[in-house]
Amino acid sequence: MPGNPFILGITVNDSDGNGIGANIKVSIRNENTNESADKNTNASSETVFNLGSSNVFESGWTAGDIISYSVSYQNFQALGSFAVTDTGGTTKTLTLVALPEAPSLRYFTVQEFLDTYSLPTYDVDNENGIKPQIIVKVGQSIETRIDKKTYRKWDDNAGDYYAVTNEYQTVKYFQKVFWLENTPVNSITRLEVNVNPIGSEEDWKNIMFTLLDAMDATTDWAAGTDGAIALNTTNNQVNQGTGCLNITKTGATAASVLYSKTLGSAFDFTGTTFKIDFYNEDNDELASSGTAVQIRIGSDASNYYSFNYTKSDIGQGGWNTLSLIHDSDDSNAGTTGTPSPTACNYIAINITYASSATTVTVGDMRLDYARFNNQEDVNIDYPSGRVEITSASNHIAEPGTDQFRSTYKQGVSSVPEDIKRLAIIMTAKAFAKSSLQSLNINANEVAGLSSAIQNLAVDDMEIKDIIEINKFPPILNSWKENPQY
């Protein structure tokens, strides 16, 4: 009925059922005549079409016509349809739902792609539109190509970054510098070298530094009978950081005092060296025979690894670095209970004094800097993934294939605009190729792509320039050159 009014009111809500606001494009189409129209919502999330107006459908409407309506917004869409009656109008509500495939796009959204090239979706215009699912499928393959070309992933993996576990590398003779394959690096858990040659049983040593407790506070530290713990911030008495702990024996009940802490997180001790710094002013306060100092790390106070030091092992009037190597075959190393090496959150030092009557002056015994390995043993540049073993004489790996391995997280906190641009134009270029036929796009869609995308004349130089700027490392053959043994 051309000229006869039929009022179609449409309200657009978000996925929670709330109005989405103004300037959201709503599209309608008369499926019988294939005529279509677009209007934006107002501040109340509403828009109104008069199907009898030539500005909407030039041919108007007839009772029984099927009218489809849709909205596509970012990674959300909604659509519906109804048959026109001979009454004066109807109202419809569109509630946006997430596209099932769209969240898997990491570098751009379906809507950003459509907006870049002023394209409609296939539901709105089946002659010139594109199905969002196809954009996602092609875009995913493009994102993978970008990852491989730049040696990077450019998103934050929902805030948790990408975990890389046991990334192996080949080692040349006396090699000290390694490049992690995925950058930028967010954190490193383990850097391991196999100190045994290929063909023999592997012996992996973790050389990555991990700070367990700076001991700049007494938080969660506890002392056994006769013991006391206090913070010491006197500059010339601190070994590292801003403070250390005074460990003091104040009573005459016990000959041994345990000073311990349960850490806030569990750590993997496998193949690692636990270190803690201990200062002792007067060795006469220590037991003259047997174990004078024992350090512990483990799962709790009943399940731990330990290493024993005698009085003669402890330097007097200075700081001592006490060490315990996981899987140590030293006779002084022991295991109590069944500690889990991959979940250690308990550290302690047990001091056996000359007698139960021994007391210690405040400041004569101190603790500082509990850690795995030494920070100065490895030099790391996180953005580039460059790892240098600075104390190679102690940690150098045996040469051969897969003799160095790393566990780390990589990724960035957001997608740079040039990477987003790169993904969009590479996706557009992919649409222009005949390979789209393998995606079972019908003839109408191919025609739409031909008119909307194939004539874009995507600048190959722009693609090349963005990749060259963002790929890493820019050191060519020195990064992945073939090793010589």
Question: What can you tell me about this protein's structure?
Answer:
By secondary structure, this protein is mainly beta. The chain folds into four domains: 98 residues, Immunoglobulin-like, CATH 2.60.40; 129 residues, no CATH class; 82 residues, no CATH class; 162 residues, Jelly Rolls (Sandwich), CATH 2.60.120. The protein has seven helices and 27 strands. The strands form six sheets. Strands 13, 15, 16, 18, 21 and 24 form a six-stranded antiparallel beta sheet that branches. Helix 2 packs across helix 4 and helix 4 crosses helix 6. The chain is elongated and about 110 Å long. The C terminus is likely disordered.
Q: Examine the coordinates and then state which fold CATH places here, giving the name of the CATH topology of the largest domain.
A: Jelly Rolls
Shape: elongated
The name of the CATH superfamily of the largest domain reads: Galactose-binding domain-like
User: What value does the Rg take, in angstroms?
Assistant: 34 Å
The name of the CATH architecture of the largest domain is Sandwich
